[in-house]
Amino acid sequence: MRVLVMGGLGGMGQGVSRDLIKQDKIEKVILGDINTDPGRMQDKLRTSEKVSLIKIDVNDHQGMVKAIKEADVVINCAGPFYKTAVAVARAAVEAKVNYIDICDDYEAAEILFASDIDNAARAAGITVLTGMGSDPGTNNVIVQWFANKLDRVDEISLFWVVSIAELAGAAWDHSLHMTIGQIPQYIDGKLVYVEGGTGAETAVFLEPLGACQVCYVGHPQPLTIPRYIKGVKRVVIKGALIPGWVDQLIKEQKDTGFLSKELIDVKGTKVTPYDLTLKLWNTIPEKRDRGPQSSGLKVIVKGERDGKQVTYTADMAGRMAPGTGLPASIAALMLAAGDVTVKGVVAPEGCIDPEKFLTALLQRGARIHQTETIASLLTI
Questions:
Q1: Which residue in 22, 159, 338, 372 has a CA-CA distance of 20 to 30 Å to 214?
Q2: 308-336 residue pLDDT tens
Q3: How many domains does the chain have?
Q4: Strand 127-129 and strand 344-346: pairing?
Q5: CATH number, residue 108
């Protein structure tokens, strides 16, 4: 199998590729990137005979179609995805090549499901699998795994935390963008829009992360999970950047206009405060506390089984690049093996077999800490 990894020289793209080159079924991994400086490539990829590097611009539709046709599957790791996912997916559909992304922006998911891309992919007989990273991705599959154990699912809470020691480049764009404006959550059985960065509560993650304050963020799960888990009344997602000073500063920047995307005049030059702020976040002084090199997920699913209320929880912690890259690599291999049969646009919880996926993830060294709590629905 030949795999084209868009954004192949970024941290997430290389995370995907490091796993792909280990697999016997993978013949070629093509790293596609706008910046083809070979110095950005990690040694394990540079020395692999399976790896090649090509220049691709996500704004060049025909160039993408031509490159994608040389692959059996394209994995889009070129964020931020509110700017790239739709364009790359559309090129993959035209090329009639299966598509996977690690999209964590709800706007792109909205468009992928609502646009002509879904019908075009079905007609072409290909899968457009969106959100196959860590969050969304692994936690969506865990949700489905727990849901399969229940007679009814009532509430789903998804929490994540990322240390800025793990952030660079486009990840900063997403991290700022996801807190701006009205973002989707699924509450009381309907989709509602809430102010990003509100709804603060404390979630406890595995060490070295511990207790963190999380707030509403704009991820796709409130849009996708109710499509597949019928009857669920609540799907909310909250996240945090650590150390704590980061989210506190982002809130102040938001409240004081530093994240505005409206053009302003600075000494005769038109700039947006958002672009300037984003540039500065990418140049944080080295002496500033960046937290541990770790990220974490927490999944809580509540429902009913055999007349009793059941609560499942799952926790994971580890490095962001492999945590995000491994799910996409596993999904590509599942596609090749015929384990993913859904055509058209689909989210992980709608097409990925939880048992097969989680088995593959655990075989790669991931660890999931899970609990089950059962309580009678009857009160005496």
A1: 372
A2: 999 999 999 999 888 999 999 999 999 99
A3: 2
A4: parallel
A5: 3.40.50.720
